[in-house]
Amino acid sequence: MGTESRTGMRVAPDRNLALELVRVTETAALAASQWVGRGDKIAADGAAVSAMRHVLGSIEMDGVVVIGEGEKDEAPMLYIGEEVGNGSPPQVDIAVDPIDGTTLTSRGMSNAIAVVALAERGALYSAPPGIYYMEKIAVGPEAADAIDIRKSVTENLNAVAEAKGMQVRDLTAIILDRPRHDAIVKEVRETGARIRFITDGDVAGAMQAARGHGGDILLGMGGAPEAVLAACALRCIGGAMQCRLWPRNDEERAQLVAQGVDFEQVLQIEDLARGDDLFFSATGITDGELLEGVKFTGKYADTQSLVMRSRSGTIRRIDSRHRLDWVRQFVQIMVD
C-alpha cells in the first residue's frame, strides 16, 4: 500500500534502500571507530550520531525517525519524530542505533555495531511512553515455530533443541550479563545448556542467535527500541522473536495499567516490524562473531556490513575500503 510523502505523492518503497542505508552505517562506524578504547562512550556515540544524521539527510526519501535517541528536548540529533532524507518519496519510518554497544566501543570490546532499519510509514512498533524495556526471546529460522515466551525457559530450550535436532546441553543461550537475569541464568544452567554472556548490544545478540553465530537463542530483558531493530533484522533473516513489555518497577507497572495497556500481551515479530518490505543495515565497529570491526591499513580503512531486505530475503555481506584521508576529513567535519 502506498504512503503520502511531503511532496503529496503516495509512494511505497520500491528500490533496495538497504544498499543506500549501508552508507549510513559505514559512516557511523567509521566515526565511532575514532573513539574505540578511549573510554568515552558519550563522545563515541556523538560522533556516530552526527555522521549517521548527515548521510541520512542525503538519501532520496521522506523519512521520520521513530526509534531514535529520545525526545527532541533530550537529544539534539536523531530524536524521535525528526524528519530525515531529502523529502521526496517514498515515505518511510526509520529506526536507528548509531552504536549498539557504546560501552563495548569505549572499552575496545567486541561486537559493537552501527545499525539502521527502514520500513513503510506506520510499520514499526512504538512502546507506550515511559516504558523502556521488554522481555525477549529470539531464535533462527529452524526454531521459528518452537518458541513461546509464556512458557518456562526450560520448555523453550527443550522445544528449540528438538526443532534444531540437537541436545539441550549442546545449545548456547545468549544473555545480557545483568543481575535481573539471575533466575534465567540459574534455570538455563539447570537444563545443562551453555550460556554466552554479553555485556551490551542485544541487537547483535539477537542476530547472532538467528544466524547461529555464537548462540542458538537470545533470552532476557533488554531495551524496547533494540527489540524493534532486532525484529527488523530477523524479519529479513527469517528468524522469530517474541516480546512482552517489562515494567521495571511499580511506578511503570501502574503507568501501564493507567493507560489500559496489557503488559502480558505477547508481541510477535510481525507486531514489532510489520509490512512486506523492510530494510536493514549493520556495520561492525569492533570485531565480533557477526561482523569484523573497522580496520586501519596504511592509507585505508576497511569496513564490513550486513545489508538485508525482507521482501527478497537477500542477505549481503559487504566489504568496503575507504580512503583514510577522506575518512579523517569527513569525520572531523561531522565532529566539528
From TrEMBL:
It comes from the Bacteria. Its cofactor is Mn(2+). Keywords: Carbohydrate metabolism, Hydrolase, Manganese, Metal-binding. Mn(2+) 2 binds at D97, D100, E226. Pfam families: FBPase_glpX (PF03320). Mn(2+) 1 binds at D45, E69. Substrate binds at D100, G101, T102, Y133, R178, P179, R180, D200, G201, D202, G223. GO terms for cellular component: cytosol. The keyword Hydrolase applies. GO terms for molecular function: fructose 1,6-bisphosphate 1-phosphatase activity; metal ion binding. GO terms for biological process: fructose 1,6-bisphosphate metabolic process; gluconeogenesis; glycerol metabolic process. SUPFAM superfamilies: Carbohydrate phosphatase. Transmembrane segments: none annotated. InterPro entries: FBPase_class-2/SBPase (IPR004464). Belongs to the FBPase class 2 family. PANTHER family: FRUCTOSE-1,6-BISPHOSPHATASE 1 CLASS 2-RELATED, FRUCTOSE-1,6-BISPHOSPHATASE CLASS 2. This is Fructose-1,6-bisphosphatase. The lineage of its organism: Bacteria, Pseudomonadati, Thermomicrobiota, Thermomicrobia, Thermomicrobiales.
